[in-house]
Design goal:
By secondary structure, the chain is mostly helical. The protein is built from three helices and no strands. The longest helix has 22 residues. The mean pLDDT is 80.
């Protein structure tokens, strides 16, 4: 499994950046690069952690909906 994950992380294309931002800022002012596959700009986890009240409300509503459906079937 580890070999598969590592193989998926490498595209085989040469690196286009001249400087890496590990120890110093880059000079080409690019924030992103072009990938051949889909890259999410955000995730459900990130959005839910940024809005905990909304997340709690949605989860509570979903639980109440499931309970209401379970009671209705009886």
């Amino acid at each position: 499994m580890e070999a598969t994950i590592i193989r998926q992380q490498k595209s085989g294309n040469p690196e286009q950046r001249q400087h890496f931002a590990l120890r110093e800022p880059t000079t080409d002012r690019r924030e992103t690069t072009h990938y051949s596959k889909h890259v999410a700009k955000s995730s459900i986890y990130t959005e839910s952690s940024l809005h905990p009240v909304l997340t709690s409300t949605l989860v509570a509503g979903a639980v109440l909906g499931v309970v209401a459906l379970a009671r209705r079937r009886r």
